[in-house]
Design a protein that fits this description.
With 238 residues, this protein is an alpha/beta fold. It has one domain: Alpha/Beta hydrolase fold, catalytic domain (Rossmann fold), CATH 3.40.50.1820. The chain has 6 helices and 8 strands. Strands 1-2-4-3-5-6-7-8 form an 8-stranded mixed beta sheet. Helix 3 packs across helix 4.
Amino acid sequence: MIITEQYNYQDDKTNLIGYLAYDDSHEAKRPAVLIAPEAPGIGEHVKKRAAMFAKAGFIALVADIYANGKYFSDMGDMMAQVEKTRGNLQAWRQRTGAALGALKAHPMTDADRVCAVGYCFGGSGVLELARSGAALRGTVCFHGELTPSDHDPRGIGSKILVLTGAADPFIPLQQRNDFEAEMQAAGAQWEMIVYGSIKHGFTNPEADLSGMPAMAYDAAVDRRSWQSMMNWLGYVLA
């Protein structure tokens, strides 16, 4: 049976409320996935992904980025918080890293087989976690911003997979090229899949409700990208 529940942990003295999913039909340790949510916070889309990972044999924790399980329904408030988060790279990495630490400490987690997956803003967040030198076997970014930033002097140890849309105006060709140059310079093992004519947010049905022409859900690419990720994770976690 798939169990989903709130999961309390901390970033220093800040209380965080994540969302945990796992299959309770056995007690053996299993691979783990940290999920970083879209900009609003822990919503239905990432909760669904956590359950999908649990069905696939993982223990999954959706990270609380804003503390106390905060979820933004107002676009203006959300964007202000996103800019604040982006403005303090060290704190952003630390907050995501706190979730990673909590997941690794869970008794069901095989701490040697842990990966991170993020969507949109969360995709950028897991890339920052990888850049920080976090001990991850794999990092997956779905339609997240790819703007380069500082990375650990030792390079990037996590393997990286990026899945993005060629028609996403938030992640244009130049940004993809700059990311490629950054990964090469960091000595990272990375891959990128670019889906032709696909816009931003292609994995999330809620993208069609945004009213933004730059965003669109694509059911076929959603299925294909999920399978591509699962195949890739099978390789990096073996």
